[in-house]
Design brief:
heterodimer, A: 136 residues, mainly alpha, 3 helical TM bundles of succinate and fumarate reductases, 5 helices, 73% helix, B: 131 residues, 78% helix
C-alpha cells in the first residue's frame, strides 16, 4: 500500500529509502510481506517486457519462433521459467492477502494469512516444477 | 532506518486516502484479483494443456484466431498493463517525491502503458492474422 504521508523527502533520504527496501533486520512481518510484494512485482514487470519482446518473434513467422522454442525447452531455461511461476504465485497470493487486509478483512490474522499464502505458493510451486520437468 | 521503513510500509486496515491514492489502491486490488483469473486462464491455455508445454507457430495462430480467445487475451493484456503501471507508480510514490514530480510520473506511466498496450495489440493482431 502506498504511503502518502511524506512528499518532499530530500534526495539523500530518498536514496536511503530505496536501500532500506533491502534491509530485512528488525522488520515487522507485515512490512516484509509488503516489500516482498513490491520486489516480486518489479521483477514481474521486467519479465512482462522481456516476454513482449520475445513474442515479437511470432510476428516474423514460423522459422524464428521454432528457433526460440528450442531455447525454451532447455532445462536451464525451464529452471528460470519455474522461478517466474514462483514469483507469480508469491505476488498473486500475497497480493490477495494485502487486498483483503486493506479492505479490513482478517486484519488481526494477517500473519497467518501471510504464512498460508507462502505455504500454498511453495506447494503449488513444487507441483508446477514437477509438471514442467515431466515428473507428474 | 528499519524502524522508519516499518512506519512507512506497515499495512493499514484501510486503503490510503488523498490525491487519488484510495482510488488507485482500489483499482490495483480489483485488477489484481482479475489477473489471478486471467493469468490462470492464460498460463493453463498456453502452456499446461499443450503437449510439451509450448505451442508451435501454427498452434498459436490457430488459438488466437478464435474470437473468444482473442477477446480474453486482449482483456488480459489491458488488465495486466493497468496493474503493472499502477504498481510501478505505487513503488515510485513510496519514496516521497513532490506533488509536481508525482504528477509527471503519473503522466509518464500513462504514456508508457498506452505504448505497451499499443505494441501488445499490434503483436496479437499480427499473429492472429497469420501473416
Amino acid at each position: 500500500m502506498t504511503s502518502t504521508t511524506v512528499h518532499t523527502r530530500p534526495t539523500r533520504g530518498r536514496v536511503r529509502g530505496v536501500l532500506a527496501y533491502a534491509n530485512l533486520r528488525r522488520r515487522h512481518l507485515g512490512s516484509v510481506a509488503f516489500v516482498t510484494n513490491r520486489i516480486t512485482g518489479l521483477l514481474l514487470v521486467g519479465y512482462l517486457y522481456l516476454h513482449l519482446g520475445i513474442l515479437y518473434l511470432l510476428t516474423e513467422g514460423p522459422r524464428s519462433w521454432t528457433t526460440v522454442l528450442h531455447l525454451f525447452k532447455n532445462p536451464a531455461f525451464l529452471g528460470l521459467e519455474s522461478l517466474l511461476i514462483l514469483f507469480i504465485l508469491i505476488h498473486g497470493l500475497n497480493g490477495l492477502r494485502l487486498a483483503l487486509v486493506g479492505t479490513g478483512v482478517g486484519v488481526r490474522h494477517q500473519k497467518a494469512w501471510f504464512a498460508t499464502a507462502m505455504s500454498v505458493s511453495g506447494c503449488l510451486y513444487v507441483v508446477v516444477v514437477l509438471a514442467m520437468y515431466g515428473v507428474i | 532506518m528499519a524502524a522508519d521503513l516499518n512506519d512507512r510500509v506497515r499495512p493499514r486496515a484501510v486503503p490510503p486516502s488523498g490525491r487519488g491514492g484510495s482510488l488507485a489502491w482500489i483499482l490495483q486490488a480489483v485488477s489484481g484479483v482479475a489477473l489471478i483469473v486471467l493469468l490462470g486462464v492464460h498460463i493453463v491455455a498456453q502452456h499446461f494443456v499443450v503437449k510439451g508445454g509450448l505451442r508451435d507457430y501454427a498452434q498459436v495462430v490457430s488459438y488466437l484466431s478464435n474470437p473468444l480467445v482473442l477477446a480474453v487475451e486482449s482483456l488480459f493484456v489491458v488488465v495486466l498493463i493497468w496493474h503493472a503501471m499502477l504498481g510501478i507508480r505505487a513503488v515510485l510514490f513510496d519514496f516521497g517525491f513532490s506533488a509536481k514530480t508525482e504528477a509527471v510520473i503519473s503522466r509518464c506511466l500513462v504514456a508508457l502503458g498506452l505504448a505497451t498496450a499499443g505494441y501488445s495489440f499490434w503483436v496479437i493482431a499480427t499473429i492472429a492474422s497469420g501473416r
